[in-house]
Design goal:
6 helices, binds heme C, 4-stranded antiparallel beta sheet, alpha+beta, Jelly Rolls, 450 residues, 5-stranded antiparallel beta sheet
Length: 450
């Protein structure tokens, strides 16, 4: 090769290399697992990639990471892991997991330069998840009945009763559902029944599980024995515990949200939805409870827009085959509120989701923008500080649904009309829903940090 060319190639190589490392301030051959890689993975991956986590393998040791190193580079370069659908250029949330350019580069160069281990002494302490909790050490853990999942490849819907007796009345700050069958638990909506000992002799009486798809469903629910002994209803706390894949439970500061927990009661998972399973397994899910010191000073409320909610969807959520449609739904805020947490929800045909407030003065308050909707990651997003929506603000929610063959998640081949009108939450029906957890606004709320 003529001298001139080799010189040129050398320059090119040098410049590529310097561009690759320019975001890092260490030479790439010095990158090691214990010093540089473990901190990135502990912070962004291990919450799911651990024993009993929702991901299918752990990323909490050198050996485990070494085995997956190539896929890790691929998934992180593509932005597929860690999964964080909300656009960080639009709004920010608690527990945001997004790799910086430098962190992605670090992972890539670490693998390229031999994926070295580094000194053991440099390894940071691995994150700890007591009783599977993402929030810390729970005050109380309640186990659900073991649920057998058959390998029949069908959706399964159950109602499960989780009774308890704790000696004295108390207050609860947060309740967390920890799925036992990892990725197979698609969602769980639960409420709490607070019983009075004078009205209920034995909360443990009755069946624990009812099959929501059975023909004798009503009889099965009766056998759960949820009512008071005199046939009246116990006090019911709605949405006491919810779960969707990847959900990070919310722990607001003391005094915000929460509810009373009587000394006897039962959580009722009013529907647990298991996705189609092709492997037989036993689900050992549990509920972690965190007590509050005092009664909630500032109770929180929920507003639900769209499917099953308080606002109309326009046009109605009926998606003809081979069509892409945009639906909107709106709600007007009756007084000044502080928004704490939001939950966008669609199924397989959803492709993008946006929600914002439009104040009476015409200002836009950004809530969330998901440019590439992914059915698997249905987070409850908690703002880093409460977002004030002034009285009269219109909350506008927009969702795009793609019922063409170009949508790789389309469950129907060929596509057929899909709607939210079947009243079911089956994955193959569609939903367009936005849940807002809020409290009445107080001066200074914007200064809080969650
Ligand atoms: C919110 C939970 C969660 C977080 C956080 C997360 N993952 Fe994952 N990851 C999963 C699940 C679940 C799967 C299984 C496949 C799927 O459902 O996409 C997976 C799959 C993977 C795969 C295998 C992909 C394949 O096709 O074989 C890799 C590699 C991976 N994750 C790397 C990472 C890395 C690296 C991070 C952090 C930078 C991370 N993940 C953070 C949940 C998570």
């Amino acid at each position: 090769m003529p001298k001139f060319y080799s010189f040129f190639i050398l320059i090119l190589l040098i410049s590529c290399n310097s561009r690759e490392t320019e975001t890092l301030n260490i030479p790439p051959e010095k990158i090691t697992f214990t010093q540089h890689i473990a901190p990135i993975l502990y912070k962004n991956c291990v919450v799911c990639h651990r024993k009993d986590g929702i991901a299918p393998f752990s990323l909490d040791s050198y050996k485990a990471v070494w085995r997956k190193k190539k896929t890790i580079v691929y998934m992180t370069q593509k932005g597929l892991m860690p999964p964080w659908p909300a656009d960080p250029n639009y709004s920010h949330f608690v527990g945001e997991r997004i790799l910086t350019k430098a962190e992605k580069q670090m992972l890539k160069l670490w693998v390229k330069y031999g994926a070295k281990k580094g000194p053991d002494s440099a390894l940071p302490k691995a994150p700890n998840f007591p009783n599977g909790s993402l929030l810390g050490k729970p005050d109380l853990t309640l186990n659900l009945e073991n649920i057998e999942l058959e390998a029949h490849g069908l959706d399964k819907f159950l109602i499960v009763k989780i009774p308890f007796s704790i000696g004295k009345d108390t207050f609860v700050r947060a309740v967390e559902f920890v799925p036992g069958a990892g990725n197979n638990v698609h969602h769980m909506n639960g409420h709490l029944l607070n019983y009075l000992p004078s009205k209920k002799k034995n909360v443990f009486d009755g069946n624990r599980v009812a099959n929501a798809q059975a023909i004798d469903f009503d009889e099965q629910v009766l056998k759960l024995n949820l009512k008071n002994d005199d046939g009246t209803d116990a006090q019911r706390i709605h949405s006491a515990v919810n779960y969707l894949p990847g959900v990070y439970p919310t722990l607001y500061p003391e005094g915000i949200g929460g509810f009373k927990l009587n000394k006897i009661g039962a959580f009722v998972a009013s529907d647990i939805h298991y996705g189609p399973s092709h492997k037989a397994m036993v689900d050992k899910s549990r509920i972690n409870i965190f007590y509050a010191k005092t009664a909630p000073e500032r109770p929180t409320y929920e507003l639900m827009l769209g499917t099953n909610g308080q606002s109309e969807i326009v046009p109605p959520l009926v998606i003809p085959p081979h069509k892409i449609i945009t639906c909107r739904t709106k709600g007007i805020v009756p007084g000044d509120i502080s928004v704490l947490t939001i939950n966008p929800h669609m199924h397989l045909l959803g492709t993008s989701f946006k929600a914002f407030g439009l104040t009476p003065h015409g200002d836009t308050i950004k809530l969330i923008h998901i440019r590439r909707w992914d059915f698997r990651w249905q987070y409850f997003y908690t703002f880093q500080k409460p977002v004030k929506l002034p009285k009269g603000t219109t909350i506008i929610v927009e969702g795009v649904f793609d019922n063409t063959t170009r949508n790789p998640h389309n469950p129907n081949h060929p596509p057929k009309t899909v709607s939210d009108k079947n009243g079911s939450m089956k994955t193959s029906d569609e939903m367009f829903q936005f849940i807002i957890t809020w409290m009445p606004y107080k001066i200074g709320d914007e200064m809080m940090r969650f």
